[in-house]
Design a protein that fits this description.
The strands form six sheets. The protein has an eight-stranded mixed sheet, sandwiched between helices. The chain contains seven helices and 25 strands. With 460 residues, it is an alpha/beta fold. The protein is globular, with a radius of gyration of 21 Å. It folds into two domains: 255 residues, Rossmann fold, CATH 3.40.50.1820; 182 residues, Sandwich (Immunoglobulin-like), CATH 2.60.40. Helix 3 crosses helix 4. Strand 6, helix 5 and strand 7 form a beta-alpha-beta unit.
Protein backbone atom coordinates (compact mmCIF):
# COMPACT_ATOMS: atom_id res chain seq x y z
CA UNK A 1 0.00 0.00 0.00
CA UNK A 2 1.33 3.42 -0.90
CA UNK A 3 1.21 6.30 1.52
CA UNK A 4 -0.93 9.24 0.54
CA UNK A 5 0.91 12.23 -0.82
CA UNK A 6 0.02 15.30 -2.84
CA UNK A 7 2.06 16.62 -5.73
CA UNK A 8 1.03 19.72 -7.67
CA UNK A 9 2.17 19.82 -11.29
CA UNK A 10 2.14 23.44 -12.40
CA UNK A 11 0.71 24.86 -15.60
CA UNK A 12 -2.62 24.88 -17.45
CA UNK A 13 -3.84 21.89 -19.43
CA UNK A 14 -3.25 23.33 -23.05
CA UNK A 15 -24.96 -6.77 -26.72
CA UNK A 16 -24.66 -7.29 -22.75
CA UNK A 17 -20.89 -7.35 -22.60
CA UNK A 18 -18.87 -5.49 -25.20
CA UNK A 19 -15.13 -5.08 -25.04
CA UNK A 20 -13.01 -3.38 -27.69
CA UNK A 21 -9.48 -4.80 -27.72
CA UNK A 22 -6.49 -4.76 -29.98
CA UNK A 23 -6.92 -8.12 -31.63
CA UNK A 24 -4.65 -10.05 -33.98
CA UNK A 25 -7.06 -9.65 -36.87
CA UNK A 26 -7.08 -7.87 -40.19
CA UNK A 27 -7.05 -4.49 -38.48
CA UNK A 28 -4.07 -5.22 -36.25
CA UNK A 29 -1.97 -7.03 -38.87
CA UNK A 30 0.75 -4.93 -40.36
CA UNK A 31 0.68 -2.33 -37.61
CA UNK A 32 4.17 -1.50 -36.41
CA UNK A 33 4.60 -0.61 -32.77
CA UNK A 34 7.68 0.22 -30.77
CA UNK A 35 8.93 -3.21 -29.74
CA UNK A 36 10.33 -3.83 -26.29
CA UNK A 37 9.67 -7.41 -25.12
CA UNK A 38 11.19 -6.84 -21.69
CA UNK A 39 8.82 -3.90 -21.16
CA UNK A 40 5.81 -6.13 -21.78
CA UNK A 41 7.06 -8.65 -19.22
CA UNK A 42 7.51 -5.98 -16.57
CA UNK A 43 4.27 -4.08 -17.10
CA UNK A 44 0.99 -5.86 -16.27
CA UNK A 45 -1.77 -5.95 -18.86
CA UNK A 46 -3.85 -2.78 -18.70
CA UNK A 47 -7.63 -2.45 -18.88
CA UNK A 48 -9.07 1.02 -19.48
CA UNK A 49 -12.51 1.95 -18.13
CA UNK A 50 -14.55 4.88 -19.48
CA UNK A 51 -16.88 7.18 -17.58
CA UNK A 52 -20.59 7.94 -17.41
CA UNK A 53 -22.31 7.98 -20.81
CA UNK A 54 -19.02 7.46 -22.64
CA UNK A 55 -17.32 4.71 -24.61
CA UNK A 56 -13.92 3.11 -24.96
CA UNK A 57 -12.94 5.25 -27.96
CA UNK A 58 -11.92 8.03 -25.57
CA UNK A 59 -8.84 5.97 -24.63
CA UNK A 60 -7.54 5.96 -28.22
CA UNK A 61 -4.81 8.57 -27.72
CA UNK A 62 -3.77 6.94 -24.42
CA UNK A 63 -3.51 3.58 -26.17
CA UNK A 64 -1.39 5.18 -28.89
CA UNK A 65 0.95 6.65 -26.29
CA UNK A 66 1.22 3.30 -24.52
CA UNK A 67 2.05 1.61 -27.83
CA UNK A 68 4.63 4.34 -28.53
CA UNK A 69 6.32 3.30 -25.28
CA UNK A 70 6.51 -0.37 -26.19
CA UNK A 71 3.32 -1.74 -24.63
CA UNK A 72 1.98 -4.37 -27.01
CA UNK A 73 -1.58 -3.97 -28.29
CA UNK A 74 -2.60 -7.44 -27.19
CA UNK A 75 -1.75 -6.57 -23.58
CA UNK A 76 -4.25 -3.73 -23.50
CA UNK A 77 -8.02 -3.64 -23.58
CA UNK A 78 -10.73 -1.01 -23.19
CA UNK A 79 -14.19 -1.92 -21.98
CA UNK A 80 -17.36 -0.67 -23.61
CA UNK A 81 -20.14 -0.80 -21.01
CA UNK A 82 -23.41 -1.86 -22.63
CA UNK A 83 -25.42 0.90 -20.94
CA UNK A 84 -22.86 3.50 -19.91
CA UNK A 85 -25.18 5.98 -18.18
CA UNK A 86 -26.01 5.69 -14.48
CA UNK A 87 -29.51 5.30 -13.12
CA UNK A 88 -31.09 8.20 -11.29
CA UNK A 89 -31.59 5.85 -8.34
CA UNK A 90 -29.11 3.00 -8.27
CA UNK A 91 -31.67 0.58 -6.83
CA UNK A 92 -34.47 1.36 -9.28
CA UNK A 93 -34.59 -0.23 -12.74
CA UNK A 94 -34.30 2.39 -15.50
CA UNK A 95 -34.37 1.67 -19.23
CA UNK A 96 -31.04 1.87 -21.06
CA UNK A 97 -29.15 2.76 -17.88
CA UNK A 98 -26.92 0.70 -15.62
CA UNK A 99 -26.59 0.14 -11.90
CA UNK A 100 -23.32 -0.05 -10.01
CA UNK A 101 -23.83 -3.81 -9.86
CA UNK A 102 -24.33 -4.00 -13.65
CA UNK A 103 -21.04 -2.22 -14.15
CA UNK A 104 -19.27 -4.36 -11.54
CA UNK A 105 -20.31 -7.56 -13.32
CA UNK A 106 -19.28 -6.31 -16.77
CA UNK A 107 -15.94 -5.05 -15.54
CA UNK A 108 -15.19 -8.24 -13.61
CA UNK A 109 -15.87 -10.21 -16.80
CA UNK A 110 -13.50 -7.94 -18.73
CA UNK A 111 -10.77 -8.45 -16.12
CA UNK A 112 -11.19 -12.21 -16.43
CA UNK A 113 -11.03 -11.97 -20.24
CA UNK A 114 -7.83 -9.91 -20.23
CA UNK A 115 -6.22 -12.34 -17.79
CA UNK A 116 -7.22 -15.24 -20.02
CA UNK A 117 -5.83 -13.61 -23.16
CA UNK A 118 -2.51 -12.67 -21.63
CA UNK A 119 -2.00 -15.44 -19.09
CA UNK A 120 -1.25 -12.80 -16.46
CA UNK A 121 -2.12 -13.35 -12.82
CA UNK A 122 -3.10 -9.71 -12.28
CA UNK A 123 -3.94 -6.69 -14.42
CA UNK A 124 -3.84 -2.91 -13.98
CA UNK A 125 -7.08 -0.93 -14.20
CA UNK A 126 -7.29 2.71 -15.29
CA UNK A 127 -10.62 4.52 -15.07
CA UNK A 128 -12.06 7.95 -15.72
CA UNK A 129 -14.86 9.40 -13.59
CA UNK A 130 -17.60 6.81 -12.99
CA UNK A 131 -15.26 4.18 -14.35
CA UNK A 132 -13.04 4.67 -11.32
CA UNK A 133 -15.87 3.85 -8.95
CA UNK A 134 -16.58 0.69 -10.96
CA UNK A 135 -12.93 -0.23 -10.51
CA UNK A 136 -13.16 0.31 -6.75
CA UNK A 137 -16.34 -1.76 -6.64
CA UNK A 138 -14.69 -4.70 -8.42
CA UNK A 139 -11.61 -4.58 -6.21
CA UNK A 140 -13.51 -4.25 -2.95
CA UNK A 141 -15.96 -7.01 -3.77
CA UNK A 142 -13.72 -9.96 -4.52
CA UNK A 143 -11.40 -8.68 -7.24
CA UNK A 144 -8.37 -7.45 -5.28
CA UNK A 145 -6.38 -10.56 -6.13
CA UNK A 146 -6.84 -9.88 -9.84
CA UNK A 147 -5.77 -6.21 -9.82
CA UNK A 148 -2.20 -5.02 -9.24
CA UNK A 149 -2.75 -1.29 -9.86
CA UNK A 150 -5.82 0.96 -9.82
CA UNK A 151 -5.56 4.43 -11.36
CA UNK A 152 -8.61 6.63 -10.74
CA UNK A 153 -8.75 9.73 -12.93
CA UNK A 154 -11.15 12.48 -11.87
CA UNK A 155 -13.26 9.88 -10.07
CA UNK A 156 -15.84 11.45 -7.72
CA UNK A 157 -14.69 9.17 -4.89
CA UNK A 158 -16.58 11.21 -2.30
CA UNK A 159 -19.44 12.11 -4.57
CA UNK A 160 -20.35 14.88 -6.95
CA UNK A 161 -22.38 16.04 -3.97
CA UNK A 162 -22.92 14.83 -0.40
CA UNK A 163 -26.50 15.69 0.57
CA UNK A 164 -29.37 14.17 2.50
CA UNK A 165 -31.60 14.08 -0.55
CA UNK A 166 -31.09 12.00 -3.70
CA UNK A 167 -29.62 9.30 -1.48
CA UNK A 168 -30.23 6.69 -4.17
CA UNK A 169 -27.77 8.32 -6.56
CA UNK A 170 -24.44 6.55 -6.85
CA UNK A 171 -22.85 10.00 -7.08
CA UNK A 172 -24.09 11.07 -3.63
CA UNK A 173 -21.28 10.89 -1.09
CA UNK A 174 -23.87 10.18 1.62
CA UNK A 175 -25.54 7.40 -0.37
CA UNK A 176 -25.15 3.70 0.30
CA UNK A 177 -22.81 2.98 -2.61
CA UNK A 178 -20.06 5.48 -1.77
CA UNK A 179 -20.43 4.98 1.97
CA UNK A 180 -19.77 1.29 1.31
CA UNK A 181 -16.62 2.06 -0.67
CA UNK A 182 -15.29 4.70 1.74
CA UNK A 183 -15.82 3.09 5.13
CA UNK A 184 -12.89 2.57 7.49
CA UNK A 185 -9.60 4.29 8.25
CA UNK A 186 -8.31 3.52 4.78
CA UNK A 187 -10.41 4.05 1.67
CA UNK A 188 -8.43 1.63 -0.49
CA UNK A 189 -8.34 -2.15 -0.57
CA UNK A 190 -5.11 -3.74 0.71
CA UNK A 191 -3.04 -5.58 -1.88
CA UNK A 192 -3.74 -3.20 -4.77
CA UNK A 193 -1.70 -0.05 -5.39
CA UNK A 194 -3.99 2.98 -5.80
CA UNK A 195 -3.30 6.28 -7.59
CA UNK A 196 -5.77 9.16 -7.86
CA UNK A 197 -5.35 11.99 -10.35
CA UNK A 198 -7.30 15.20 -9.91
CA UNK A 199 -7.54 18.79 -11.04
CA UNK A 200 -6.52 21.83 -9.04
CA UNK A 201 -9.99 23.39 -8.98
CA UNK A 202 -11.05 22.98 -12.62
CA UNK A 203 -13.01 19.72 -12.37
CA UNK A 204 -16.72 20.51 -12.66
CA UNK A 205 -17.59 17.41 -10.64
CA UNK A 206 -15.39 18.35 -7.68
CA UNK A 207 -16.80 21.77 -6.79
CA UNK A 208 -18.02 23.15 -3.44
CA UNK A 209 -20.89 25.06 -5.08
CA UNK A 210 -23.85 23.26 -6.65
CA UNK A 211 -24.16 25.39 -9.77
CA UNK A 212 -22.98 22.51 -12.02
CA UNK A 213 -25.73 20.27 -10.68
CA UNK A 214 -28.35 22.97 -11.23
CA UNK A 215 -28.29 24.31 -7.66
CA UNK A 216 -26.21 27.49 -7.64
CA UNK A 217 -25.42 28.72 -4.17
CA UNK A 218 -26.15 25.35 -2.55
CA UNK A 219 -23.08 23.78 -0.90
CA UNK A 220 -22.28 20.33 -2.31
CA UNK A 221 -20.22 19.38 0.75
CA UNK A 222 -17.59 18.21 -1.73
CA UNK A 223 -14.29 20.00 -2.30
CA UNK A 224 -11.60 20.10 -4.96
CA UNK A 225 -9.96 17.27 -2.96
CA UNK A 226 -13.02 15.02 -3.41
CA UNK A 227 -11.29 12.58 -5.82
CA UNK A 228 -8.50 11.83 -3.32
CA UNK A 229 -8.52 8.67 -1.21
CA UNK A 230 -7.00 7.90 2.16
CA UNK A 231 -4.31 5.28 1.61
CA UNK A 232 -3.71 6.11 -2.05
CA UNK A 233 -1.04 8.06 -3.87
CA UNK A 234 -2.88 11.32 -4.64
CA UNK A 235 -1.58 13.61 -7.37
CA UNK A 236 -2.82 17.04 -8.43
CA UNK A 237 -2.22 17.69 -12.13
CA UNK A 238 -2.90 21.43 -12.26
CA UNK A 239 -5.73 23.30 -13.93
CA UNK A 240 -6.91 20.48 -16.15
CA UNK A 241 -10.58 19.58 -16.51
CA UNK A 242 -12.64 16.55 -15.53
CA UNK A 243 -11.91 14.44 -18.61
CA UNK A 244 -8.35 15.63 -18.99
CA UNK A 245 -7.55 13.94 -15.67
CA UNK A 246 -7.57 10.76 -17.78
CA UNK A 247 -6.88 11.73 -21.40
CA UNK A 248 -4.40 14.61 -21.19
CA UNK A 249 -0.71 13.88 -21.99
CA UNK A 250 0.12 14.92 -18.43
CA UNK A 251 -2.26 12.27 -17.13
CA UNK A 252 -0.70 9.68 -19.45
CA UNK A 253 2.70 10.37 -17.94
CA UNK A 254 1.47 9.68 -14.41
CA UNK A 255 -0.55 6.62 -15.44
CA UNK A 256 2.42 5.08 -17.21
CA UNK A 257 4.89 5.96 -14.48
CA UNK A 258 2.69 4.49 -11.74
CA UNK A 259 2.08 1.19 -13.56
CA UNK A 260 5.49 0.74 -15.20
CA UNK A 261 7.53 2.15 -12.33
CA UNK A 262 9.51 4.56 -14.53
CA UNK A 263 9.08 7.62 -16.71
CA UNK A 264 7.76 6.99 -20.22
CA UNK A 265 10.40 7.23 -22.91
CA UNK A 266 8.14 9.57 -24.87
CA UNK A 267 4.90 11.47 -24.49
CA UNK A 268 4.43 12.14 -28.20
CA UNK A 269 2.65 9.56 -30.33
CA UNK A 270 4.99 7.66 -32.65
CA UNK A 271 3.47 7.60 -36.14
CA UNK A 272 3.01 4.46 -38.25
CA UNK A 273 3.58 4.20 -41.97
CA UNK A 274 0.47 2.10 -42.56
CA UNK A 275 -2.67 3.16 -40.71
CA UNK A 276 -5.85 1.10 -40.55
CA UNK A 277 -8.90 2.28 -38.69
CA UNK A 278 -12.23 0.75 -37.77
CA UNK A 279 -14.73 0.79 -34.99
CA UNK A 280 -18.27 0.38 -33.79
CA UNK A 281 -21.43 2.29 -34.67
CA UNK A 282 -23.57 2.89 -31.59
CA UNK A 283 -26.58 5.07 -30.89
CA UNK A 284 -29.00 6.50 -28.39
CA UNK A 285 -32.30 5.01 -27.27
CA UNK A 286 -34.92 7.55 -26.19
CA UNK A 287 -32.13 10.10 -25.85
CA UNK A 288 -29.92 7.90 -23.67
CA UNK A 289 -26.56 6.93 -25.19
CA UNK A 290 -25.81 3.22 -25.27
CA UNK A 291 -22.92 1.13 -26.56
CA UNK A 292 -25.15 -1.40 -28.25
CA UNK A 293 -24.18 -1.96 -31.88
CA UNK A 294 -26.29 -0.42 -34.63
CA UNK A 295 -26.95 -2.58 -37.69
CA UNK A 296 -27.72 -1.16 -41.12
CA UNK A 297 -25.56 1.97 -40.72
CA UNK A 298 -23.43 3.10 -43.65
CA UNK A 299 -19.93 4.44 -43.08
CA UNK A 300 -18.08 6.26 -45.85
CA UNK A 301 -14.57 7.70 -45.57
CA UNK A 302 -13.00 10.40 -47.71
CA UNK A 303 -9.65 12.15 -47.59
CA UNK A 304 -10.15 15.92 -47.54
CA UNK A 305 -8.08 18.98 -48.26
CA UNK A 306 -6.43 20.40 -45.16
CA UNK A 307 -7.43 24.00 -45.92
CA UNK A 308 -10.77 23.75 -47.71
CA UNK A 309 -12.26 20.56 -46.25
CA UNK A 310 -13.21 19.51 -49.77
CA UNK A 311 -12.98 15.85 -50.71
CA UNK A 312 -10.02 14.70 -52.74
CA UNK A 313 -9.63 11.45 -54.62
CA UNK A 314 -11.94 8.48 -54.58
CA UNK A 315 -13.93 7.20 -51.64
CA UNK A 316 -11.50 5.41 -49.32
CA UNK A 317 -13.99 3.07 -47.69
CA UNK A 318 -17.71 2.39 -47.77
CA UNK A 319 -19.52 -0.33 -45.87
CA UNK A 320 -22.78 -1.11 -44.10
CA UNK A 321 -22.70 -2.49 -40.58
CA UNK A 322 -24.07 -5.90 -39.73
CA UNK A 323 -25.47 -7.14 -36.44
CA UNK A 324 -22.16 -6.52 -34.67
CA UNK A 325 -22.24 -2.81 -35.63
CA UNK A 326 -18.62 -2.84 -36.72
CA UNK A 327 -17.09 -1.03 -39.67
CA UNK A 328 -13.62 -1.24 -41.21
CA UNK A 329 -10.81 -1.87 -41.43
CA UNK A 330 -10.04 1.02 -43.75
CA UNK A 331 -6.52 1.97 -44.79
CA UNK A 332 -6.09 5.75 -44.64
CA UNK A 333 -3.36 8.25 -45.39
CA UNK A 334 -1.78 9.15 -42.02
CA UNK A 335 -1.03 12.66 -43.27
CA UNK A 336 -4.52 13.51 -44.52
CA UNK A 337 -7.56 14.84 -42.62
CA UNK A 338 -10.67 12.73 -43.02
CA UNK A 339 -14.39 13.13 -43.56
CA UNK A 340 -16.29 10.15 -42.15
CA UNK A 341 -19.95 10.12 -43.19
CA UNK A 342 -22.28 8.13 -40.95
CA UNK A 343 -25.78 7.35 -42.19
CA UNK A 344 -27.44 5.68 -39.23
CA UNK A 345 -31.13 4.69 -38.93
CA UNK A 346 -33.42 7.33 -37.41
CA UNK A 347 -30.62 9.89 -36.97
CA UNK A 348 -29.18 12.85 -38.89
CA UNK A 349 -26.62 12.04 -41.56
CA UNK A 350 -23.45 13.02 -39.74
CA UNK A 351 -20.30 14.27 -41.47
CA UNK A 352 -17.40 13.84 -39.04
CA UNK A 353 -14.28 15.84 -39.86
CA UNK A 354 -11.18 14.46 -38.16
CA UNK A 355 -7.49 15.26 -37.94
CA UNK A 356 -5.09 12.78 -39.57
CA UNK A 357 -4.74 9.49 -37.70
CA UNK A 358 -1.05 8.92 -36.88
CA UNK A 359 -1.60 5.32 -35.79
CA UNK A 360 -4.03 2.48 -36.36
CA UNK A 361 -7.04 2.01 -34.12
CA UNK A 362 -10.09 -0.22 -33.93
CA UNK A 363 -11.88 2.05 -31.48
CA UNK A 364 -12.81 4.80 -33.93
CA UNK A 365 -16.41 4.53 -32.76
CA UNK A 366 -19.20 6.55 -34.30
CA UNK A 367 -22.44 7.87 -32.80
CA UNK A 368 -24.65 9.98 -35.00
CA UNK A 369 -25.06 13.64 -34.09
CA UNK A 370 -27.94 14.58 -31.84
CA UNK A 371 -31.30 15.19 -33.55
CA UNK A 372 -32.19 18.66 -34.79
CA UNK A 373 -33.64 20.84 -32.03
CA UNK A 374 -35.92 23.87 -32.02
CA UNK A 375 -32.95 26.25 -32.14
CA UNK A 376 -31.89 24.66 -35.45
CA UNK A 377 -35.21 25.13 -37.26
CA UNK A 378 -34.26 28.30 -39.15
CA UNK A 379 -30.66 27.27 -39.87
CA UNK A 380 -29.47 26.44 -43.35
CA UNK A 381 -26.61 24.41 -41.87
CA UNK A 382 -25.59 23.20 -38.42
CA UNK A 383 -21.93 22.61 -37.56
CA UNK A 384 -20.78 21.25 -34.20
CA UNK A 385 -17.30 21.52 -32.72
CA UNK A 386 -16.79 18.59 -30.34
CA UNK A 387 -14.01 17.69 -27.90
CA UNK A 388 -14.72 14.21 -26.50
CA UNK A 389 -11.51 13.91 -24.44
CA UNK A 390 -11.88 17.17 -22.58
CA UNK A 391 -13.80 20.40 -22.23
CA UNK A 392 -13.27 23.87 -23.64
CA UNK A 393 -11.72 26.11 -21.03
CA UNK A 394 -11.85 29.89 -21.46
CA UNK A 395 -9.52 31.69 -21.04
CA UNK A 396 -7.34 28.62 -20.40
CA UNK A 397 -7.50 27.41 -24.01
CA UNK A 398 -7.50 28.92 -27.47
CA UNK A 399 -10.98 28.08 -28.74
CA UNK A 400 -12.02 29.54 -32.08
CA UNK A 401 -15.00 28.39 -34.12
CA UNK A 402 -15.37 30.08 -37.49
CA UNK A 403 -12.93 32.73 -36.33
CA UNK A 404 -14.60 33.58 -33.00
CA UNK A 405 -14.83 32.30 -29.47
CA UNK A 406 -18.06 30.27 -29.32
CA UNK A 407 -20.86 32.07 -27.48
CA UNK A 408 -22.10 28.79 -25.99
CA UNK A 409 -18.80 28.00 -24.24
CA UNK A 410 -18.81 29.36 -20.70
CA UNK A 411 -15.66 30.87 -19.20
CA UNK A 412 -14.15 29.71 -15.91
CA UNK A 413 -14.42 26.08 -14.83
CA UNK A 414 -14.53 24.07 -18.09
CA UNK A 415 -18.00 22.59 -18.51
CA UNK A 416 -18.67 22.50 -22.26
CA UNK A 417 -17.40 19.80 -24.62
CA UNK A 418 -19.32 21.01 -27.69
CA UNK A 419 -20.16 24.27 -29.44
CA UNK A 420 -22.76 24.80 -32.16
CA UNK A 421 -22.66 27.10 -35.18
CA UNK A 422 -25.84 27.78 -37.15
CA UNK A 423 -25.46 29.25 -40.62
CA UNK A 424 -28.04 30.74 -43.01
CA UNK A 425 -28.96 28.86 -46.17
CA UNK A 426 -26.81 31.24 -48.22
CA UNK A 427 -23.68 29.87 -46.49
CA UNK A 428 -24.34 26.17 -47.06
CA UNK A 429 -21.28 24.57 -48.68
CA UNK A 430 -18.62 26.87 -47.28
CA UNK A 431 -15.83 25.76 -45.00
CA UNK A 432 -15.79 26.29 -41.22
CA UNK A 433 -12.57 26.24 -39.20
CA UNK A 434 -12.52 24.74 -35.70
CA UNK A 435 -9.40 25.61 -33.73
CA UNK A 436 -8.56 24.22 -30.27
CA UNK A 437 -5.07 25.13 -29.11
CA UNK A 438 -2.80 23.49 -31.71
CA UNK A 439 -5.41 21.24 -33.33
CA UNK A 440 -7.14 22.72 -36.36
CA UNK A 441 -9.98 21.06 -38.31
CA UNK A 442 -11.68 22.38 -41.44
CA UNK A 443 -15.27 21.19 -41.90
CA UNK A 444 -17.86 21.85 -44.56
CA UNK A 445 -21.38 23.16 -43.92
CA UNK A 446 -23.96 20.65 -45.19
CA UNK A 447 -27.63 21.51 -45.81
CA UNK A 448 -29.85 20.94 -42.79
CA UNK A 449 -32.74 20.53 -45.22
CA UNK A 450 -31.20 17.18 -46.18
CA UNK A 451 -31.08 16.10 -42.52
CA UNK A 452 -27.30 16.57 -42.39
CA UNK A 453 -25.08 17.84 -39.56
CA UNK A 454 -21.32 18.41 -39.69
CA UNK A 455 -19.14 17.66 -36.67
CA UNK A 456 -15.56 18.87 -36.34
CA UNK A 457 -14.41 16.24 -33.83
CA UNK A 458 -11.17 17.01 -32.06
CA UNK A 459 -8.80 14.14 -31.32
CA UNK A 460 -6.63 15.85 -28.71
Amino acid sequence: MKLSRRTILQGAGSVAFAVASFRNDALAQGQSAVKNPDNNLEVPPILFVHGNGDYDALWMTTLWRMESNGIARDRMMAINFTNPSARTDDAVEQANRSSTEDQRRELAAAVAELKRRTGAARVALVGNSRGGNSIRNVIKNGGAGDVSHAVLCGTPNHGVFALDDLLGSEFNGRGAFLRGLNGGDSEVTPGTAFLTLRSDGMDKYAQPDGRFMGKPGVPTNVTFEGPELKGATNLVLGTIDHRETAYHPRAFREIYKFIAGREPARIAITPEQTVRIGGLVTGAVDGVPTNRPVAGATVEINHVDRESGERRGDVVHRATTGADGRWGPATVDPTSPLEIVLTSPDAPITHFYRSPFPRSSDVVHLRAARPFVQADKDAGAVVIMSRPRGYFGLPRDTVLFDGQEPADVHPGVPTDAAATLRLPASEVGRNVVAQFNEERIVARAWPASENRIAVAELTY
